[in-house]
Amino acid sequence: MAVDADYDAFLDHVRRLTYVGDAGSVLMWDQEVMMPEGGTPARSKQRSALSGLHHELLTDDDVADWLDDLADVDLDDGQQAVVREVSRKHERASRVPEDLVEELSEATANAHPVWAEAKEAGDFSQFADTLEHLVDLRREYAAAIDPDRDPYGVLFEEYEPYLGIDTAEAVLTDLREGLVPLIDEVADSDVDLATPFDGEYDTADQRALSETALDALGYDWDRGRLDEAPHPFSSGTQFDARVTTRYQPTDPIDALSSTIHEFGHATYTQGLPEDHYGTPLGQSRDLVVHESQSRFWENHVARSRPFWEYFAGTVVDHLGTPADPDDLYEAANTVHPDTLIRVEADELTYHLHVALRFEIERDLIRGDLDVDEVPGVWNDKMDDYLGVRPEDDGEGCLQDIHWSHGSFGYFPTYSLGSVLAAQLDEAIRANRDVDALVREGKFGPIRDWLREQVHRHGCRYTTPDLIRSATGTTLDADPFLSYAREKYGNLYDC
Amino acid sequence: MAVDADYDAFLDHVRRLTYVGDAGSVLMWDQEVMMPEGGTPARSKQRSALSGLHHELLTDDDVADWLDDLADVDLDDGQQAVVREVSRKHERASRVPEDLVEELSEATANAHPVWAEAKEAGDFSQFADTLEHLVDLRREYAAAIDPDRDPYGVLFEEYEPYLGIDTAEAVLTDLREGLVPLIDEVADSDVDLATPFDGEYDTADQRALSETALDALGYDWDRGRLDEAPHPFSSGTQFDARVTTRYQPTDPIDALSSTIHEFGHATYTQGLPEDHYGTPLGQSRDLVVHESQSRFWENHVARSRPFWEYFAGTVVDHLGTPADPDDLYEAANTVHPDTLIRVEADELTYHLHVALRFEIERDLIRGDLDVDEVPGVWNDKMDDYLGVRPEDDGEGCLQDIHWSHGSFGYFPTYSLGSVLAAQLDEAIRANRDVDALVREGKFGPIRDWLREQVHRHGCRYTTPDLIRSATGTTLDADPFLSYAREKYGNLYDC
User: Fold this and answer.
1) Residue of A22, A37, A47 with shortest CB distance to B46
2) What CATH number was assigned to the domain covering residues A122-494?
3) Which of A51, A184, A207, B352 is the most buried (most CB within 10 A)?
4) What pTM value is reported for the model?
């Protein structure tokens, strides 16, 4: 009886913690999508108050006491998973001194305008001291959590707690080593893929196309909405999982891919169990698994030839452009090795953009690279991996916002998500005729498989256990590399 | 030194409390304006978690200690005002037992669907037990705050803390006694006012008209936005004060009035001092003063003849209807004594709708009226004050949501706000040629007067002190009655 009472009180506290965190996400969504510009000063204070309360609830002494008491108790599998997840976060948060949390928060707030100006000026030297300070603070942060472990590995666990940096690093290395020669071959190919779009396309028409795509894929509009944001994202809960996209006048495939990418995130969120809302069993796994969902729908579904066979007519309906399925398929899969900007990169070269960021941030945090060396190493690696050099730091090492946020260890999750997406794609294809389903616009059976194997579990399993249960194996770059070699070999005749 | 340190720590706590409350308002706005329907279960939990934390921060023992310490200290006027406001809220919140707070929260959550069904069925008996329970709980609530005072007076202070129920009651009685004979004369008048609108008007055109009106009046779009909501409202802070409106296809004046009403609220909020954000000096006074701002702009500006002289051309531009200023003025001021629904009522009869609600809820809370008698008393008063009887309770005593929310004491603030608006109008006219300014669309000097006399003070003064400083007198129904007699006497030739 006392045990149940303890667990129930603990769970009430956990729910409260989640509700405060989710309220913070609503404020973030509103700030990105709806808030007028003048609202920033007040919104920063509101969000910071909620973060502070979230931190206090997470590190509360009561949580430590409950966790102690519950360690001696027979819990069922679900309860054990809840305790495992909360305990991990409680431990991490409790080890970091308040002062350091505040210093980091202040340093990142101050860093943002410095980074933005340096990027605008294309001059890394303006940002160097700021970056050095953030690297130092994050090293301190990692040491507070565990002084005896690789600090980059500790920071990586902020975004993916269970895979381990060694596995991640091995997979990322395999991925890079497999992709560099393939991209070389593609770059040398004489094949010119089709460019069916020219002119400009209305935002309203593009929006209608995105809505039709979301309808077709099975987005639950009663629990979501579609809006515009300069940097598309999705956020929310199983009751309200929203997506955003952005419309480029000359490139309607960009908005569509972005919408479908965010659909992948949102359909994961919509598939979490309702009755566990507020606890880890009702929350999604971390960034690698989340990104596998977005990349699966964006690439393995919506960049496939069957998808364009199914969807070409819809494109014509909305955009008025006569479009051949093969041409659309080619347009959606054109490789541009000379693209300097990560967020504009194609399915293949994207991972080399990620690889160099990963290698640089890892070496910075491990103390193997000085901040001043960043632009040189960046440019050399761009040359080495993709055969291009940025003309200034604005289109080079200053292009991404992540480091100015003090985020180190985030980048790898993008590529690892794609790797996992290819493994899931293989696993689904062992059970379903994915091409036939997609060609007929029957996405339900694909969604159902993902819901059954991934979504409904929330955080019941750790990442490696979830991967094993869904795919029967461990994280592995080979399926992605085989998929890429076959697809792009055919497209580029190489 | 210790004193300053105490006050600073106290103020930090107060700010945190405000930020959490303001975060709750963002969640409310999103729920009313943006949230998909399926989001309700999660949103209720998020909002309830924030309310709970707000309550804990407000009733915190530290607050009591700070208030004790600060009682012995020399504070400047602004600091004294902060202490006065926080102390009042802390006292009230601390006196109500947690159990009762939770019981009330649960009872109102349960009441809403019961009320909605009873209203739909037009049958008060379905709601009677629920209402009785809410009345009992609110009587208990008032007794917890102060068992020795009139419980209705205590509840009224939830919405207007400083005027006192005796003043409110005297003013409301004067207002009703002045309006009933005037409305009788209007009802007996042979004059038919113009009806310049027929047909249906596009939402997009009406929206553009509302936007143009907001531009003209001086709404700061960098700190606000306009959206649609079924029950228009405004919310936010001085950094982000948003308005909503609703568009009726056949009645473009309805949306315009509603937009301008909410503009009045929002321009008050936008005029609060930025540097006091988070403390009572950066917060608006309560509902009577707030409603005076909305009613001033809605009625004394936008229902005036000079306004329509200025704005008629804009109406033509947006709606394509050729419209004579006199016709528009008449259309905006038509009295309909046979309107049964408060929110559809005109500037005059509105106050009799409020009067009967006030009288009924006051008597319920004081124990002078049984819940079962409500429909009968309601219908008799409608007959008595306005000469009409509802056909069922849906268009009678069930029409408003307030009681189902457990809100008793809110209704009077609507009329008292109008009364104060007329007093402010008189005071401005003693300093500015309002008609000439409005006729030329020069609203800046009017906004400036209100900012100087009302907005910038936040909660520095109590309501009566603020009224005295702005108007030189006390709350008084006479200016409204004079204004109404002159305006409607001219319109209806009576």
Assistant:
1) A22
2) 1.10.1370.30
3) B352
4) 0.95
